[in-house]
Amino acid sequence: MTDVKQPTLDEVKATVTEDYGLDAETQGDLIDSIADKHFSSSAEQQKELSKAIDKKAKYRDQLVDAGLIDSKTFKPVVKKKPDGKKDEIDYGQKTFINKILGVDLGNEKEMALVDDYVSSGKSLDDLISNKHFKNDLKDLKEAKRIKNAIPTNNKRSVGTNNKAVDYWADKPFDEVPKDLKRDVLNAKIKEESSNKMF
Asked: What's 87's DSSP letter?
């Protein structure tokens, strides 16, 4: 712990005299009261600083004792897993991932996303409020929903985009994915104009 030099009352008086431009002999009472205020606030600050330093040292010692940080460098200890094996996820973590985070445990891409964030140093609790994780998960779910929405083995349509347009043409327009809205709208207009001809 580094000691901060506590100013003496005479040093504080000299500082007050310089700062306020007062003559110490003629304005003695005023200088004494101002110096006392400065002296007491400085002592309080010193006490608070000392408490904060002691608290930080105690917390650091607890982290060292727990094996979470190195005792010499005070940096986090990286624990290597033997033979490249991953830690197994227990049932509590699976429930948390599924129910709280909304991740489909059977979806490899969503689980890989969780693994990526956790391996980067985030905890599962951190993912609850992590906007990047939420956005990435939302994108994966949207891509899966769109992929599942496209009918397969449909003889009427040739291209993948046509399959999607045909599928979404009968759905409410606000449910249509953004990237298909223009195509779906054009298809509806084309269908209505061809129906008017007959």
From this structure: P
Rounded Cα–Cα distance for residues 86 and 97 (Å): 17
Q: Give 158's pLDDT tier (boundaries 50, 70, 90).
A: very low
Q: From its phi and psi, is residue 35 left (phi > 0), alpha (psi between -120 and 50) or beta?
A: alpha
As a whole number of angstroms, the distance between CA 118 and CA 123 comes to: 6
Residue 94 reports pLDDT greater than 60: yes
As a dihedral over the C-alpha atoms of residue 23, residue 24, residue 30, residue 36, rounded to 10 degrees, the angle is 140
- Please choose, from the candidates 82, 84, 133, 143, the residue with its C-alpha nearest in 3D space to the C-alpha of residue 111: 133
* Tokens 């009261």 sit on residue: 33
| Strand, helix or coil for residue 69 | strand
